[in-house]
Amino acid sequence: MMWFRKRIIVYALLLGVFLWLSARGSEFSFSELFELENTIDFIGRSFVPLQTDLIPYLLQQSLITLAVAFFGTFTALLIAIPLSFIAAENTSGSSITFYGSRFFLSLVRSIPEIVFGLIFVVSVGLGPFAALLAIFLHNVAVLAKLIAELVESSDSGPQEAMRSVGASRRIGQVFAIIPQIWPNILSQYFYRFEVAIRTSLVLGMIGGGGLGQSLMNYYNSLAYNSMATAIVIIMVLVIIVDVTGGIVRKRVI
After folding, report:
1. Which segments of the protein form a coiled coil according to its record (predicted)?
2. Is 156 a member of any domain?
3. Total domains, the chain
4. Residue 15 to residues 3, 5, 20, 110, Cα–Cα distance (Å)
5. Is the separation of the CB atoms in 211 and 230 below 8 Å?
6. Residue 125, exposed/middle/buried by CB under 10 A (0-12, 13-18, 19+)?
7. Amino acid 1: pLDDT
8. Are 200 and 131 contacting, i.e. CB atoms less than 8 angstroms apart?
9. Closest CA to 176 of 192, 161, 196
10. C-alpha dihedral sign at 199, 200, 206, 212
11. 54 near 226, Cβ under 8 Å?
12. Per-residue pLDDT at 4
């Protein structure tokens, strides 16, 4: 019992040290935290009234953003599902493929989408296609890693049952594991889709088109009320995706 208490104390001390170092590294300040009058005043003066006449144009741009996010994440999911079986310890063929695939996924995942976007802009030029490629590549690595963890935590009973009736190892794994983890796969997919919408906004600022590019243009021209209109549409877009994801997941469960 005494040993347990000492361990908790050590963990608490370490956590305290990390928090203190993080606060120093991020220049956290309590006094400045409560001095946000300028920000509130800026929003009140510049963000209202909204430019409602821009809504038709911004809705058109939001379709580009949605297209980039949806195509990038859905095609990534199609690649990530088979890749996750290679990257999961219980379904990988050997330790070489397991560690090799995990290393590859970590390597790709460590590169932010904006870096991929800047690289692809050199090859395919400015526009939504560069953003789409960046979102696709990053999400393949992220979704494959997340789904691999779901595969590893799946129940082995259904696999053994399928093997006992003559199914091959791979067929048994696919048809026994996928039904178990499918609702969680959908949850991960809709979450990544929501993240991809926000990412495509950032990529739009470097020439990826869509709402992000409009947002950057309004910011550069100091048209803050137009920028606020775009932000409101982004918020509505994310809420719609979140609600839709919840409805689809409930129907699947």
Report:
1. none
2. yes
3. 1
4. 18, 15, 9, 25
5. yes
6. exposed
7. 52
8. yes
9. 161
10. negative
11. yes
12. 61
pLDDT along the chain (253 residues), means of 10: 71 91 84 74 77 84 86 92 88 85 89 84 82 89 91 80 75 81 85 84 75 82 84 84 76 64
Give the position of tokens 């982004």: 234
Domain presence at residue 45: no
Q: What does the buried/exposed string (b/e) look like for 60-99 if buried means 16 or more CB atoms within 10 Å of the residue's CB?
A: ebbebbbebbbebbeebbebbbebbbbbbeebbeeeeebe
Cα separation, 223 vs 240, in Å, equals 26
Distance, in Å, from the CA atom of 116 to the CA atom of 123, rounded to the nearest integer, reads 11
> Any idea what the CATH number is for the domain that residue 215 is in?
1.10.3720.10
pTM here is 0.77
Q: Which domain holds residue 151?
A: 50-252
Q: Is 154 exposed, middle or buried (0-12, 13-18, 19+ CB in 10 A)?
A: buried
HEC assignment per residue over the chain? CHHHHHHHHHHHHHHHHHHHHHHHHCCCCHHHHCCCHHHHHHHHHHCCCCCHHHHHHHHHHHHHHHHHHHHHHHHHHHHHHHHHHHHCCCCCCCHHHHHHHHHHHHHHHCCCHHHHHHHHHHHHCCCHHHHHHHHHHHHHHHHHHHHHHHHHCCCCHHHHHHHHCCCCHHHHHHHHHHHHHHHHHHHHHHHHHHHHHHHHHHHHHHHHCHHHHHHHHHHHCCCHHHHHHHHHHHHHHHHHHHHHHHHHHHHHC
> What is the pLDDT at residue 21?
92
